[in-house]
Each structure stands twice: as structure tokens, then as C-alpha cells.
Amino acid sequence: MAKQHISFSLNGQQVDALVEPRELLVHTIRETLSLTGTHIGCETSHCGVCTVDLDGVSVKACTVLAMQANGSEVMTVEGLADADGLHAVQQAFIEEHGLQCGFCTPGMLVRAYRFLRDNPNPTDEEIRWGMSGNLCRCTGYQNIIKAVHSAAQKLQQA
Amino acid sequence: MAARAEDINREDALQGIGCSRKRKEDPRFVQGKGNYVDDIKLPGMLFADLVRSPYPHARVKSINKEKALALPGVHAVLTAEDLKPLNLHWMPTLAGDVQAVLADEKVHMQYQEVAVVIADDRYIAADAVDLVEVEYEPLPVLVDAHKALDPDAPILREDLQDKDNVGQGPRRHPNHIFTWEVGDKEATTRAFDTAEVTVKEEMYYPRVHPSPLETCGCVASFDKVNEHLTVYITSQAPHVVRTVVTLISGIPESKVRIVSPDIGGGFGNKVGVYPGYVTAIVASIVLGRPVKWVEDRMEHLSTTAWARDYWMTGELAADKDGRVKGLRVNVLADHGAFNSHAQPTKWPAGFFSIVTSSYDIPAAQVKVDGVYTNKSPGGVAYRCSFRVTEAIYLIERMMDVLAQKLGIDKAEIRRRNFVKPEQFPYKTALDWELDSGDYHTALDKVLAAVDYQGLRKEQEEKRAKGELMGIGLVTFTEIVGAGPSKSCDILGVGMFDSAEIRVHPTGSVMARMGTITQGQGHQTTYAQIIASELGLSSDQIQIEEGDTDTAPYGLGTYGSRSTPVGGAATAVAARKIRAKAQKIAAHLLEVDENDVEWDIDRFKVKGVPGQEKTMKEIAWAAYNNVPEGMEMGLEAVDYYDPPNFTYPFGTYLCVVDIDKYTGQTHVRRFYALDDCGTRINPMIIDGQIHGGLNEGFAVAMGQELPYDAEGNLLGNTFMDYFIPTFVETPHWETDYTVTPSPHHPLGAKGVAESPHVGSIPCFTAAIVDAFAHLGVTHMDMPHSAYRVWQKLHELGLDKHS
Ligand code: FES
Ligand code: FES
After folding, report:
1. CA B232 to chain centre
2. Which stretches does DSSP call E strand in B131-173?
3. Contact present, A74 and A54 (Cβ < 8 Å)
4. Whole-model pTM?
5. ipTM of the predicted assembly exceeds 0.85
6. B389 and B287 together in one domain
7. Is there a contact between A141 and B41 if contact means CB atoms under 8 Å apart?
8. What's the whole-number mean pLDDT along residues B152-166?
9. Domains and CATH numbers, chain A
10. Are strands B509-513 and B541-545 parallel, antiparallel or unpaired?
11. Interfacial B residues in 168-227 facing A (CB < 8 Å)
């Protein structure tokens, strides 16, 4: 099938790519654009390890066609840190031991980032529901909840 | 006082054993800079994808590759016929059996690998898989393990028909794999014949899958010019993989490099060697280009190693005070189509005989029969140490059954049967030597922490009102740290593990181990061990694992063996370095070796304040000023062969409330006390326990790989296979006691699996306890709302009164 040209902003930089119409965004990001922080765990929208931020909402990049990202703004885990260093959610995951094997972590962080923008001061229960699209097999979630709380506090102080 | 404070500062600066050091692996993971197998991209790399059988049992009549090969971008389609000349169409399993790499004339399970397609990218490979035409002739299917040994059962493994032994002892039927029997039959029979009371219960431990979030995969790269093979692979045991690759390919180990990069969780699933790996390796050798194979989730759940599938019958003989006199267990083990469980060679049922657990049981007898069925192969240790989870489940269920029969409180019956602190080291009836334990203290601490009496009172009140509340209590002893090479090997290689430590001139350290982290944080904790042993700051200590070209040979990470075996090797290697450092220090201070003593990070001349050499100074001297006759340098290797296993233990308590009308179980409280001996990093231990409890919760409440009568696997996607989310997962409370292992150099026992082993029977116990006053003694997992509701309905409890 003829490849199509798409152009979008990835972590603040304009990128171009030639993609097959059926190509999934997660493959374009990982393989064509070589940002491998976004992972693949199920390809059926269940696990959330492929979570990216697309025009201000969390999406699972395994279930979005690359073509759908044309003209939009995408942020992956690689876009969280800036010149000042790690983002508060990244720092909090380290401080609270919110990761083990690290495979779910990029998706978790990108989701936590968006979740805290939508709900800057969440309760435990709200975190549990708000993050429930992201699975983790290692941590038992408890320290991730702690990390999201502590990031929320830091972000509010800032 | 001042001196003491200074000592504490020096000690803190090391960030050694006992401190909750932040993990060194985290900065790269939180920035998306992990390096997992699927992240690896080599120049000219092709993609492999597998054609899989829709039938669980069938003859392969023909395979037509033409259409697939005609698709642009397809490089090759390989079948068993193509692998035959290389003798690679079958491979050895870790259990003495063989497994088809690509189906040789017959398929034995649904989703079995039939052909491999190699193409330019994963989309083309997937298209080509659909174009391979395979003609099958379906055969009668065997799904029910209980029918495997029937005289008229369909014969599955025709390749083994004339073998009366498939590596694990004599067998008596073409579908039989082994019978494993241990214990004193006579003494046990006597105990039952003379018992005041006996109980018996049948239980099924369902087939469950570890399902780490990263599936299995590899990138194989064969360099034709130098005849050198490199494989990046999702393996918990890279050195074992190298040995297997050499055995089946004939390429010498020195020309095979296996690398386990970052691994996205393993939990026992990534110990074995899978057909996908072998096909990628063969394809790379044939085509002379790197080949990547990464399975999808459905392939992962359908074909890679699962755990359990044990049909167990337990019996206890006791006196009327609840003191157990005898234990008898019979197990029918469903191993699927190939015997590819991963247990040490001599242990076809793993360490199932730890089944006497924390209890002083004078006589015991265990029999396990393994059989083939048309299901996927496996039987690995899902976050446990070789069938320990099944064993602990059985004994903990049986203790409750006995308690209910005698009307004795479930905590009290355990207390009456515990091995007492003064009995250690304690030889069990099934021949394990429990190294250390203090079960009474652990139990009392938990009962006090949760106000057990108060809970029982509340339960009574609730029962009076017709409400269902259950309290589950489990007091388990694990066996980990496999293991002494006299009793444990894999493919003939003893189950030691190794560490190699080099201290550089300025006091920084590079250390390599034979184990491999999959999230356990080895880069952090091994450095802490070395820091404490050598008095050098852990921030200056670099840990590397997983590359067989550089790391010393080791058996890998599973069965909680890293700390008990790899951690011990690390401590012993560090002590060898310290012994040399002592000689250098004495030489520098111009005193006798026996006149200096170790103090946190330096050697001091005894009784002469100020006369001392720090480890950093000694490291420098090791490269320019050593005693006469001593070789330069400061490094050591240790291959540690443990004298015994370690036996971590714990007491877990769970409180549930059950909705009478929906069967929904709410876990109100889960309290886990673990004793893993010396604690190296409490933060990491807690994290491991949370994770293990959550995986235990998953197994108890929902995980299952069921098959229908035709051998179709139901539930091989994340839509059907239960992985708890944030929402279902309970809140965990953790606690600990410390009873060091007397034989481990650091006193550490290993912890990551205890929470899985201990929590599963605890959830079941809590749910059954909610129904105990109605005469219910056991309910099989998974305890989904529907299944609990079935029990409510059967008892008529779901009716509005
Ligand atoms: S890979 Fe996208 S949700 Fe699992
Ligand atoms: S840290 Fe391993 S899956 Fe979450």
C-alpha cells in the first residue's frame, strides 16, 4: 500500500514520517522515529504500557493509527524531563520506589502527568480509578499511588 | 560519643546493607532509556513471525509456502523439514524431554509452532503468516488429565512411544511422564491407622500464567565471517541458554554470546528456551542477517510457560487436640504436550515436599504423577521456588480443614503444631533441614497487630446478622536458594552462582554476577553488599549482569535464588578481597597481619589510635606497593555452592467481606509479616512484597487458563486473563521479624516469592472462612464473584429473607 506522509509535533519538535495507512502510532514512534521509551505489552488497549499524550489526552498508541496523529501534538516519556531536570512525576517514582522492572513505567508516568493536570489534588480512590488503564505486574501499585500523591504535592507547591 | 557519631557517619556514607538506598536503575527507566529486547535494532535486521496450529492434536498433512514466499519483502519460510538436516527440528527441554521447535508431522497443542516466516518488517511477516497454507488431519484430543492414563486414551507423543523413561524415572503409559514418591509410607500408614481423627480434601490448583508485561522475544545475529552468534534475549538464565544453544547448534560456547538486556518482568516465565528463539537463531544463521522475534500477548499466554495445574488430594491424621501425626498427599500433575517445566533435574515435582512447611509432622508421604495432555507445555515456578506454592496451598488448606473438624481456632491449631525455636536446625519428615525460624513470635506479632480476638468477635456478630465475613490466616515456610549442587542441577550444571569483583586503583569497583535482574534491583542491592564488606561507597560500585561474554557463569535468577546464592557469592568474593587488603594494610603500616583489625572502611592497628589505612588507600597500594611475593591487583571471583537451602517464613492474615447477593469479595485488610533473615534493602523488600501479594491476589481471585473439551484455549488475552488493576488491588500492610540464616554469609534468605506463596492460600482461607460456620471446608480458585455467588446460591444465602 502506498505510504502516506504525516507530520506532527513529537515532544515539542516537528517530525515527518512516511507511514502505511495501517501502521500503528506506537510502531512509528518506536521504529521509524526511534524513541523506544513507549513500550508494547498487549496491542489490544489493555495494559497501557504504550500510553502517550495526544493533544492533551492520554491515548494508547497501540490502538491509534499513525495517520490519526497527523497535525497533532504528541508527548512520550522522553518529553517529560526538561532543561531543569526530571519532571516531578519522574522524581516521585524514584523517591517512592514506584517501579521495578520499569516496563510499565513510561506509560505510567505519561498517564500520571496527564492525570495530575486534570486532577491536581486527587484522593487515593481517584488515583486508583484515574490510573486504572495502566497495568503493572511488579509493584502491587501501592508505591505508585504514593508517588502520584507526592508528585501532586510538589506540583502544587511549584 | 563523638567517635560513635563519626562511626555512624562513616557507615551511613557507604550506603551498605540495611539501608533503603534509592535504586540505581531508576533514572534510566523513568526517562524511557531502558534497553529491552524489542528496543534493539541492528542494521539489516529482519522480523520473524510464526504460523501456529489452530488444532490441539492433528497430523500435518502438507504445508504450502508458495503464496507466502511470493509476497514482496518475505525472505524465507521455514518448516520442520528445513530444520531436519540441521537436526534442529526438536530441542531438549530443561526436564529431560524434547520439544518440537517446528511441528514434526504432528501438532500436540493449539497454537503450536508449525512454520516461521522471515520478512522485512513485522507487518509483512504477519501478512505472510496468513498466506502459509497448512493442511491438518485432526486427531482425538486429550484435555482432561484424569483420562490421560486410561487404556483407550489417545496417544499423544508418538515420538516417545518406545521409551519407558523420559528423563524422570520409569513410566507406565504412553501419556505418563513420571511418578515421584517420597516419604515413609509405612510410618505414614501407621499414623493414619492409629489416628484419633483424619481429614481428607480434594483441591484443584488451576493453570495460571505469570504474564509479565513484556512478552518473550529475541534478536539473533549470526556473523558468518567470524562464525560468531549473538542473541539478545528475554531470559532469566542467559548462561543456561548459552549452554542449550551450544548443545543444539554445535557452535562452541566461546563463539556464542547471550545477552539478557533489561527484562520487563519474568516471574518464572522467562527461564526456559522457546521455539521462537530457536527459529530466530536458525533464520539468522541461514540468512546471515540479524532476525528479531517478539511474540504478541496471545502467543505469550498460549504457548509460553504457565504454572500449577495440580490436582491435589491431602489427608491429615491427628489426635483430638489437633496435633498432626501424619500427612499424605497425592497429586496428578498436568504438564501439557511436552515436559518442559523448569525444575532442577532430580526434582520432577520441584520442592513440593516442603509440604510439611512450618509444622512438626512426624510422618509424611507424597506421590506425584505427571501426565501429557494436548495443552501448552509448562509447570514453572510462577514467582515461587519450584512447586512450593502448590505445597503451601495444600498444607495450609488442610490445617484449616482439620481445625474446622475439631472446632479448634485456626491460629491455635497452627501454634500447637509449629516447629519450636529450639528445634532448629530441624529435619522434616520429607528430609529438608529447616535452617532457622521463630514461628511463634511471627504469629503472635500478627495476631496482636490486627486484634485477632476482636476480629473473631466481630465475625460472630456479623454471622448472627447473616453477614459474611472471613478471616484467613496462613503461617508458611518456604524453601528458596536452589541450591546445593549435590542435590540440584540444570542440564547437569550444578546450581551454584557467581560473582567477580574488581577494585580499581582509586577505589571504584566493577562487579559482575551470574544472576540477572528483572526488576529486583540487583544493581542497587549487590552494590550495598559490596559496600558493607569492602568499606567503599556503593555509589562507586558498578554492577553488571546478563552478558555471557563478560559475566561469570551462573544459573540465573528465579526461585528467589539471587540473594541466597548470588548474594552469598558476592559477599564471599568481597571477603577474599578484604583478606588480601588486610595483608596490604599490614604491610603499609609495617605491622603483622594479625595486629590490624577491620573498622567499617579501613584497617586499624589494634590499640594504636590514628595508625590506619582506608580501603581507598589500600586499593591504590594494591597497584604499586604490595608485600613481597604478592601479586598486584585487587580482585576476586567466587562460585558459591550453598551448603543448604534457605527457609524464609511468614504469617499472613486477610479479612474479607462478601456481598451475599453478588458474590463480590472485598478485601478489607491484608497484613503480611515476612522473615527473610538479614534485610539488605528494606525499601526494595517492601516493594517485592507488594508485588508478590498482588500476583497472589491475581491468582486467587481470577487467574486461570481454561480449555474447552475440544482443547481450545479460552482466555488468552488480557480481556479474559485477569491482571488486577489499581482498582481491584487491595491495600497492603507489611511487617517483619529477623531470624538470620545460620549458613548464609550475610544471614539473608531471599524474599520475593514468599508473598506469592503465602498470600494465595490466605485469600482462599479468608473466603472459605466466611462460609465455615455453614460446614464449607474448601472452595477452589479462582474466587471470582461468579464462582463465589454459585456457592451462595447453592447454600440459598442469596435469597432476600
Ligand atoms: S500495548 Fe497498548 S495497551 Fe497494551
Ligand atoms: S514495574 Fe514491572 S510492570 Fe510495572
Report:
1. 21
2. 133-138
3. yes
4. 0.96
5. yes
6. no
7. no
8. 94
9. 4-78 (3.10.20.30), 88-157 (1.10.150.120)
10. parallel
11. 211-215
